[in-house]
Amino acid sequence: MPAGGMAPLTVAVLNWRDYQGRGQWYVDRMRAQVGQHLTIPHRFVEVTERDLPEGRTGRCNKLYLLEMFDGEVLYLDLDVDVVANIDHLVELGRSDPGRIWARNDFSYPVTIEARVSRPGYAGPLMHNGREATINSSVMYWRGRKDMSGAEALIPVTHGDQGIITALFWPDGIGLFPEDSIRSYKYHVQRGLGTGSITVYHGRPKPHDLQ
Length: 210
Fold this sequence. Notes:
Number of helices: 5
Helix content: 10-25%
CATH class: Alpha Beta
CATH superfamily: Spore Coat Polysaccharide Biosynthesis Protein SpsA, Chain A
Low-confidence stretches: 1-6
Radius of gyration: 16 Å
Largest sheet: 6 strands, mixed
Strand content: 15-25%
Strand order of the largest sheet: 2-1-3-6-5-7
Number of strands: 9
C-alpha cells in the first residue's frame, strides 16, 4: 500500500474480506458518492486485508489505517451514505491538522463522560462504566499516528472507537458538527434529517434497503 500519493487528500475506505459479501458494490457506490459530493482534489483508495502494515493481525483493523498514510486522509466506512457536499469536513480538519477529527458517538458520546474509573482503561467512561467514545465511521487526520498502544487496549474496550478515544482524547481529537453526520436509526428514521453523511450502525445496512 503506498504511503502518500499525488493528490493532496486521500479518501480511504476499508473493504475487509469482501464487506457484507458484496464489497465491490459498496466500494463502487462510495467512489461514486465521493466523486459527486467532494469537490476538493483527492484520490480514492480501497484498503483490503492484504494491505495491513507488517506485523498487524487484523484485529480492530480500522485502527491501522491511522499509521498507513502520509499526508491528509478522509476515512469513510463503506456503509455510510454521502448525500451532500462534504468539503466542509475536510476544511474543518485542515483548520487543526494535529487532531484526529470524528463525530461524537451517537450512543456513548464522549462529551458527557462521567468521572469514573475502570481497571485497565484510562479513557473517558459513561456513568455505567462503558467507554465514552467518538464514532469512527467518518474520520479525518494528517500524517501517520502512533498506534503502539492499541494492541494492549483491545481486550479492555468495545473496539476501535474506544481505543482511538483512549489514545487521543481530549487533546488529539476534534469533533465534527453533529448535524453534518447523522444516524439512520436515530435521525433519518425519525424524520430528523440526513446531514451530509448518514451512518448505518447496526441494521439495516444500505444494501438491505435496495
